[in-house]
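Holo prediction — zinc ion.
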Amino acid sequence: MHKNFKNIDKVVFGRSSFNQLDSIIAEKRHDHNKYFLFIVDNYFKGKELEKRVPAKPEDIVMFINVDAEEPTTKLIDTIRDNILKSKGLPAGVVGIGGGSIMDIAKAVSLMFTNEGSSTLYQGLNLIKKPGIYHLGVPTVSGTGAECSMTAVLTGSEKKLGLKCEWTVFNQVILDPDLTGTVPKEQWFFTGMDTYIHCIESEKGSCNNTYSYAYAEEALKLCRDVFYNDGAGQNAVNDEKLMVASLMGGLSLTVSEVGICHAISYGLSKILHTRHCYSNCLVFQHLADFYPQGVKEFKEMLAKHNISLPENLSKGWTNEQIAEMAQVAYKLTHMWNHYYGADWRNKVTLDSIEALFRRL
Ligand code: NAD
Ligand code: ZN
């Protein structure tokens, strides 16, 4: 079976395209209880962008601090319950922020129309009804959350996305001006998420001409941003990284991610290490799986004076490592992509634990 994937309905790309937000949502304002919910990264509170959010008096503007933890099912359920109780169903949701806010906006949109806790819907195609209109404005480039079919949530049981066609944004506004203030390390780690998406997407059984074309173009852009002469954080590269993020996300949607993401998910679930940083911690140790990618990754680390800790696993208990391996083992589609259908003959809990012990 070939994947039949859902793309974003509409995309606008370009400097200052954020100014088009007001007119884009104008025609959607008549739906349901005729107001919009804006979910904005707390970083922008008090900044110039706050004044540019085109909120009307009836709208809700909610600032969320994403630093303490990655989006949780509890957070989504609470937002949904409080808003339905106070103002009823909004006409639409706008998320303005990095991958965390993208996922919160996507998940809230779905949970407005699907009863019960979001924990019930963590997995593939478990959502019963389409959500409400949702629009994403990414302000950090790299995760591909702006185009992916999943909204990753950490629940009491698992870290897993609400994954279905309805998760995908109806509209995305890609304004590279908004990413200019991202701190350097964040810029690097989140940008590397795209790089790793492409390397993993290309290497495995789900790779095909379509996913490969997206990955190659995204890798070319990543190299301009992080590797070639002229690399670094600047306006031209902000544009390139924003497009790379989108194309990397599309590549993995058509294909799949691989071993780095499987291990990274285990780390994030048990030790709450953040996704993009976690990927970097893992990827540096996977030269035997992705030789060229890891070599180039290390050169990019050096070029930007980013150092990553090693020997982390020395501080972990055997139980923690076993738990992480359990989480990683369950990501069957990632192992299947790297090793093929007979992956269970090649991957065991012990071999996964050994990968964690490399860290
Ligand atoms: P983030 O959204 O977690 O934000 C990281 C930091 O950057 C925060 O401190 C935030 O306040 C700050 N920030 C955001 N925009 C800024 C700006 N313009 N200027 C200055 N600071 C800014 O970062 P991220 O790395 O983009 O996202 C990580 C999240 O994305 C994780 O929760 C991960 O699970 C999720 N993710 C989702 C998918 C998907 O397909 N849905 C894929 C990969 C990762
Ligand atoms: Zn990723």
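READOUT: The chain has a mean pLDDT of 96.
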